[in-house]
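Students often ask why we bother predicting the structure of a whole assembly rather than each chain alone. The short answer is interfaces. A chain on its own may look different once its partners are present, and contacts between molecules only exist in the joint model. In this exercise we take two input lines together and write out one structure for the complete complex. Read the inputs first and try to guess which parts will touch.
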Amino acid sequence: MSFDNNVATKFPKLAPKSPSGELLLASERAQGSFDVNELSKFMYTDDWLQRMYKVLAVLENEPAFDKTDRYYLSRKDKITSSLWKDSRLVELVKEQKWDETDTQIANFLYDQSTPFSLHYNMFIPTLKNQTTAEQKKLFLEPALAHRFIGCYAQTELGHGSNVQGLETTATYIPETNEFELHSPTLTSAKWWIGGLGKAANHAIVMARLITGGKDLGPHPFVVQIRNLEDHRPMEGITVGDIGPKFGFNSVDNGFIMFDHYRIPHVSFLAKYSQVEKSTGEYSKPPNAKLSYGTMVFVRAQIVMGVRFALAKATTIAVRYSAVRQQFVDAASPKKWDNKITETPVLDYTMQQYRLLPAVAAAYACFFTGREMIRLYNLNQDAMQQGNFSLLADLHASSSGLKSLTTTMAIESIEDCRRACGGHGYSMFSGLGQFYQDYLPNVTWEGDNYILTQQTSRYLLKTFRNVIAGKAEPSEYNQTITYLTQFLENPKAKCPATKPSDFSNPELILSAFGFRAAYGIAQVAEQIDRHGRSWNSMLVEISRISKAHCQFVLVRNFIVAVQNDEQLTTAANRPLLNVLRLLASLFALHTMEKELAEFLVAGYFSSEQTAMLKEQVIHLLEQVRPEAVSLVDAFALPDYFLHSALGRYDGKVYEAMTEMAEREPLNHTLVVDGYESCIKPFTVKKSAADGASAKL
Amino acid sequence: MSFDNNVATKFPKLAPKSPSGELLLASERAQGSFDVNELSKFMYTDDWLQRMYKVLAVLENEPAFDKTDRYYLSRKDKITSSLWKDSRLVELVKEQKWDETDTQIANFLYDQSTPFSLHYNMFIPTLKNQTTAEQKKLFLEPALAHRFIGCYAQTELGHGSNVQGLETTATYIPETNEFELHSPTLTSAKWWIGGLGKAANHAIVMARLITGGKDLGPHPFVVQIRNLEDHRPMEGITVGDIGPKFGFNSVDNGFIMFDHYRIPHVSFLAKYSQVEKSTGEYSKPPNAKLSYGTMVFVRAQIVMGVRFALAKATTIAVRYSAVRQQFVDAASPKKWDNKITETPVLDYTMQQYRLLPAVAAAYACFFTGREMIRLYNLNQDAMQQGNFSLLADLHASSSGLKSLTTTMAIESIEDCRRACGGHGYSMFSGLGQFYQDYLPNVTWEGDNYILTQQTSRYLLKTFRNVIAGKAEPSEYNQTITYLTQFLENPKAKCPATKPSDFSNPELILSAFGFRAAYGIAQVAEQIDRHGRSWNSMLVEISRISKAHCQFVLVRNFIVAVQNDEQLTTAANRPLLNVLRLLASLFALHTMEKELAEFLVAGYFSSEQTAMLKEQVIHLLEQVRPEAVSLVDAFALPDYFLHSALGRYDGKVYEAMTEMAEREPLNHTLVVDGYESCIKPFTVKKSAADGASAKL
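Now the answer. The structure tokens for the assembled complex follow.
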């Protein structure tokens, strides 16, 4: 080339069309009726917020935590930059003397899983919970010192949901006092294992324990997979990365296969079950019920995580919808400086209908997550005293709530992305990669469809118990309460006579309870009286789990805004008012979405349906002026959002163009491939060697 | 390093657990009741299929069309490889003497948009339709010769949906007989323009025509943007790529800004409106109604495209669901070689419910696309004769159908992906990138929410006409027919008394017609009698558009399987039977999804709802054995699908491992970043310089 091709493209210094995003957001913020900061403190506590700002200040100055290039990186560069973040975080924790909460906040703000994530989330916890003292010394101590980097290898190429179908074997060899790990088929390759592909040097491997010729099913082993000196795979092991995924490409999800690979006796995690040396005799683990408590805790965290997911998605979409103006609404034109301007899209009812219920859902998940943690603690105390009466309901609800809320989250992320119009499709929206990375939540920790079966089994069993007079309503078991109420009056009707009646908390709870109970009764009848098979009822089975969990979400929200001690003080009256609006909106929007189930039960009339819809629109109108303040209260910093559309300052278009300037394709004037793929067409052959080509 | 790091990871040669995918798919294929090839020919014609196989044979041997690396490429490599494909296709067309259909098939099979896509789809068609003879010579001829590579620049950073709000100006300068293009603000930057970022040297630019001080709104201009000799941007122009997107990263969507950039008078596309030289006098375009015909044609193509999208997604998910076995269904365990095996997930009702209606929907879109093309041709003939009576209904339905069917497609692609469990999340499923690339369809060519307003405006107007006695039912206007029927009996009830009644074609059509009419009547009442604003009714407005278009989809399917001459021959009886099952399944599954609207109208009773659900499950049972044959009939070659899960031969696990071997991270033993980010933790400082590090 006869010119310098390495010229970066720069936008001219021009302002966007007025009114600017800054002015628009300022006018939105002036409309809010409550103190944003007070609402943030109510949700997070002041302590947590202060810690977050402290950690944020550190990360914003750490090159290893810089997000500037996040949306441009190739897969390989994502892995490399993630490893850098992981190793730097180990140092930062020491330098900054961060405790576990601070470290969690750092990972939360970085907002991207990395190769070491499973080391912290699965490898170390498993080593803590399932090892003997000897094993703690051998495995846990080096893991805490990062000499061992670990992962958790359960899923196989051929088996995910059905853990009992795993094929990898661990055969005890009494002669040498070893276990022999083996992958008998291609489908037995461990697959999807986070951190295994390239980073880990150890793995917890779930393998079928075989001793004395008996197959005892899947059990956990600690296995060294890579050399500690040079990181090469150990002999007898085939290990690598499973390749590109829809998202999560900053993690090296891996595969591993074992070819008669021997590990010492001490590798078998022996806290709960043991294999005796020499004899190979097996002793069983104790009652597994205690571990259900842990599952409840994990799922409470997932529901709290859904709150953050909804908060992030709605923060971006609501702010951008206040900045983005499109069309003049002839019926009520907007004015700015006395000139008619286009209308911010957030003023269109359809946009409100797409976004504001998702804001309400974020708050709903907060209250249910909080309640799950409270019940988890109650239940742990009760179980310590031998009282297992709370466990079944809590565990069953937690399965369905994981399923329901993660599905809500992923749908809302995508709804929010689409509600951002064309720019939602740009990676700079922050919503695209977020959707991609969040998506595994609907499949892992229990596939969302399969999980509903656990919840529904419990619901049907409880229904049969209530009918048989073997279950009494109690404060801790709302399922029994709503089922009992239903059976007392299975032909009940909704008492609403005007739209505002639908905001009555008791009316709402009765309606959700009735609808859940009606569905459960119908399924029970089909199975118990008409002999329908479980398989043929799976569609309805997933519906009753959802109905029950929507009851739980609505109830926890409603109860909190009636009774919460902190909210019902005089000073917090403005918070309470807006949260009550949101509780109604969440409940009624959910009703409208699930309308068929309220109608088929004969519970709502057609007239009441019209009232319900009117009340939803009315609530949207009331929430509309609070919208930007409500998402501000989520207190999600720009560093966390990393979104051109969701910036706190509303400088959407400035950010879009700055981020476009950083696109690597814009670092040269003429694209790679021009010479061979475009020039032969555009520069005529005869002229190509002559004057015009030299221009 | 003291060892060769460049060692590729290879899987051991092991077979998957039996029964293999090959055996499972063979047994599925043995169950089909109809001739797969006959169904393919019915949909595509034998001629099209032969052409496809001919083109396929060429592409499979063309390195520029090789898909092997598709899922591993960085953004930059995607652009480079796309340019290679584009330039090679120009040569192939000549070498192979391909006509337009062959070329379309080549692009269809390659299945990825590229920098030249908009040159063919927008630049050339616009030049063909909107130019004078002089302009054809100046612009169209070089475009056809690829000396000009073009794009179509309409959308701006601040304006997408509202074309009238575009800010770029083109001011006529009578002194020099030029137009001056200018971007007055940052928001006026053209944005999202496919092919503009790096490849195009010309653009059609939509800019506000200003002449004699008057702003005449957006008009099209042909503008040279890059030098033909060396591809550098012209002076006065800022142009580049808008950066990474959620999908579509093989296309260089670009931005452009003009700084008082002059273009000659001839650049103004002057077929319809003109600006007179020297005086700058403007003359208006003729009636725009003719162009609505073209929109109908484009949307018919989109609906046909939805058919392919659904076909692709369901082919992958159905085949994999027949191969993937998970859990033993205790109630009816599967046997293979007399041994109990796990159950293919396609045998679970929930999986059938997720997948088989989407198969049916693909066929529904085929019949509606076909009908739209028939009506388009009828209407073109009618308009030639000055008869515009068909246009309104056809155009209105086409808006809503674009909205409805592309939304159906994107939802089904994602449903199919999730139905593939964990592996659906791997790029090797073929569904991830497909989802990403398909997604813009719900936003472009009219945002799916905004489009519904066009349809509903027509529906409300027609309703008012029917009430006023100003509209007569006719064969070509089913809207008037169902509205008239509704008004004759607005309290009608569904006559079903047993589940199988729901498969009665007349019952189905009456139900869909009634439900659409009821919704329209409700909205009309709210607006016309209660004075509700358009904005406050947007949610219901989008619902009535959907209700109408679901009626259209169902009707076209039902009518075809009653009356199609080719299908109702004796020889095609088996095809007809299976298509009738699918028509029922599509209709009843849609009813169930939209149940609330049938219930709120009082049209279905609770008992009938139970019958409907029973009939859906019954239809799933009947379609189940045909499932693999039905997707085989879509005749989508493995090259097109590029999916490990959807392969015709069922070798799912072999393909997953082969594709994992190709992951670039697996081409070295030890990952980049090991030395700086892992080694400092795992190799103890003291030992690092000593013996163990040299191992």
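Check your guess against this: The radius of gyration of chain A is 29 Å.
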